[in-house]
Design brief:
The structure holds 3 protein chains of 3 kinds.
Chain A: E1 9-20, E2 26-29, E3 35-36, E4 45-47, H1 48-63, E5 67-78, E6 81-84, H2 87-94, E7 121-122
Antiparallel strand pairs in A: 1-2, 1-4, 1-5, 2-3, 3-7, 5-6
Chain B: E1 2-4, E2 9-10, E3 15-16, E4 29-32, H1 33-38, H2 40-46, E5 50-54, E6 70-77, H3 84-94, E7 101-106, H4 113-118, E8 123-125, H5 132-139, E9 144-145, E10 156-157
Parallel strand pairs in B: 3-4, 4-5, 5-6, 6-7, 7-8, 9-10
Antiparallel strand pairs in B: 1-2, 1-8
Chain C: H1 25-46, H2 52-60, E1 64-66, E2 71-75, E3 81-83, H3 84-96, E4 101-104, E5 110-112, H4 120-129, E6 146-147, H5 162-172, E7 187-190, E8 204-210, E9 216-222, E10 234-240, H6 245-259, H7 270-277, H8 279-293, H9 302-309, H10 324-333, H11 335-344, E11 345-347, E12 353-358, E13 369-371, H12 372-385, E14 389-392, E15 398-404, H13 408-417, E16 432-433, H14 448-457, H15 461-467, E17 472-475, E18 489-496, E19 499-506, E20 518-519, H16 526-543, H17 550-557, H18 560-567
Parallel strand pairs in C: 6-7, 7-8, 16-17, 17-18
Antiparallel strand pairs in C: 1-2, 2-5, 3-14, 4-5, 4-13, 8-9, 9-10, 11-12, 12-15, 14-15, 18-19, 19-20
Helix pairs in contact in C: 1-2, 1-4, 3-12, 6-8, 7-8, 10-11, 14-16, 16-18
Classes of the chains: A alpha+beta, B alpha/beta, C alpha+beta.
Amino acid sequence: MAIDKKIKPLKTPVSVTANLLLKGLSVYLKTDGSWSDNIADSAIAHNRKQETALLELADITVRSQYVLGAYSFPVEIKDGQAAPISTREVIRASRLPTIVPVGLTEKPEWQNEFTAANANSYKH
Amino acid sequence: MLLNKDGSNSKNLSTIIHDTEDFTLHNDQILPLDYWLKNKAEIKQKLNRIVIWVNSDEDLDSLKEDLPSISLIAFNFPKYGDGRAFSMAHLLRGKYEYKGHIRAIGSPIADQAQFLFRCGVDSIDIPNGQSLEIWTTESKRMSRFYQRSEQNDLIHSRY
Amino acid sequence: MYKDVFAPAAPSPVTQNVNMYKYDQFDDTFIKQRIEQFRSQVTRRLSGHITEDEFKPLRLQNGVYLQLHAYMLRVAIPYGQLNSTQMRTLAHISRKYDKGFGHFTTRQNIQYNWPTLSDIPNILDDLHKVEMHAIQTSGNCIRNTTSDPFAGVAADELVDPRPWCEIIRQWSTLHPEFAFLPRKFKIAVNGADHDRAAIAYHDIGIQIIKNDAGEIGFQLFVGGGQGRTPVIAKEIRAFLEPKYLLSYLDSILRTYNMIGRRDNMYKARIKITVNETGIKEFTRLVELEWNRIKDNGFDLPEAEKQRIFNHFTLPDFEKSEYDKVAYEQLKQDNNGFDYFVKHNVFGHKEDGYSIVSISLKPHGGIPGDISADQMDIVAQLSDDYSLSEIRATHKQNLVLPHVKTGELYQLWQKLTDANLAPANIGLLTDIIACPGLDYCNLANARSITIAQMISERFDDLKRLTDLGDLTLNISGCINACAHHHVANIGILGVDKKGVESYQVTLGGSSFKDASIGNIIGPGFSVEEIVDAIETITNTYIDQREKGENFLTCYRRVGQTPFKEALYNVA
């Protein structure tokens, strides 16, 4: 791949995340402009130009008031898919707290809601 | 469009002057406070109605002695979250005993309408593009409030 | 074998004759209209008529945040007082609209972590049915007024602060002038000798006092706060006649609204205004304004004051007699009950009655969290044992305020069955923790996990009792929601290049001898922090003199021995 020297590289690749307006749930931007539960589905930007393009794509659904608070964040690439790096983004991507809620001895069913297998896609 | 405290609407016939570099003074202008302070004599001579606007970081004291001759004072909301205009309206009525017209301009939001009227504001210049219907609904939202304020005739208050 | 000694609990009273403020038509309509306003705001948002920037202040004024995983709704519990019907409604809401639990906060509120935006107006409808709301639980406005959780019943109380809190609640609710302040604004009122409301750390702290002539009045403090710049409030007026409370509050708020900084949100709290202006000049400005408006109709008329006061007359207590010998015997025979009485039971104004604290800090638990089933149990126990009344505390616990001393044992057994009887009130594991990075959008590190690990390490009541009075608070970021600055041992979670790290402060206090803790040295990792806490408590045990609690010991010996132990420096 030819490297355009004018395009500023990023220290790490980034993906774009936001929250759904109705439920507030965290979602990840896919290449087609829709959103997924699953961070592994997210589009990855390797340089500033791609990052700007992803943020602009996200902004379409921000402006149509479907999601809010879109931002880009560093990811690492595992098996060609985006994975979170910081503790914050790891917790956010799991879409759950790291603890078992009060009154329960093991993780309740709702804590298994969001997995790669049953990831939901959100389009507007 | 103006929303008045009685719920009625009227056309806004005045222009808010922000830039005083290159302009001709005439009636139906809302003049910035510092322009008024520097050109009092000329304004008094040329205009039959003195109408000025005050930003949220400006000092009401500078208006004190001329208040009886000013027929309208507009408080500017540089952004809706800057709530100084509420206290300024209260002080203008209560402390400075201003009897003229008070208007809110700039970027207030519909949900502030009732608060503004209760603090002594008479009319609000609704920002362009906003729904008059929502403003009107929100300005009558609550029929009662707990506390006394500067303008209590519009609602049912506890005391 | 004890059943014969202790009479069975009285049948549940169906009526809610709790001595608390009850809505009349005025309040009822007021709340209804406010909900309709919020409903229309939500509709406007969901239909795309307003942007998030426009909606944010509106949702915040009704306690709706957007957190890490979902929306969060904060419901006000005015000055922490609840009746059993209200508690059942809180349980119902957590089942119907949330995930079956709730979180009690340091400001005597409760939070739900998972509501859908469109459900929130319906939640508010349910709350309205039991005379509750979420008004001004967030935003740059006057927040829920907090108070002593033992208000009205504490043995050391001078005056019941609750009617004054209610007066402040009504005055501050949709106050037309103070809904868009430079920053949030918190008021606390304390009416007892012991400060259980942490008034020194509020924007306005009100201590009810008696002057030399025996008259009741208010000693007012201003400019206290936590966050990134912890400040102890300064006295603005030594004695205020009660009839001037509202005009004086108006004057403080108006002065702050006019001169508080709006250029930098980190410098916008009144603590910064007071520091930058100087307490002397700030006081002069407030008094100037107050002299203009007092006796001008802004204070509460006597009849209206009386109307509010009438709601807070204490209940008619039945005579409560019990066999003191048998009671002492029970404590001797049962270690768990003995600890419970020692740590969780407090003196009541009325003979034969006790105040019981329910600790929401079980072994390995989440501080302040309570399941819907537990909420229902607490409601039922309050019906059976506490005249249907419950309090929420700023330490994220609950209180049953009117328990017959002779029924303590039965109550303790039932609380134990529901995992609601940890006997650790005021001890090291009575940890205040914010939701931290598990839920909060602002957090840099997890708080709950650390609290859980500490409560697992320090699980022995004998050891905890030996460590004595000790406060340990954990905040997941510098906003200090868990008040780490004012804990004897404070833990602050920070982000070190995406990894959690924990900074320790020692020597803080939120009581009458208020002080702000000092940072002891470099931070600790998740793996290291519990050992570090144990090193600190071991150092205290080595250093203490007879009868010295942690704070007194620390104040005497200073940082050095703790530093040496923690960082292995000779």
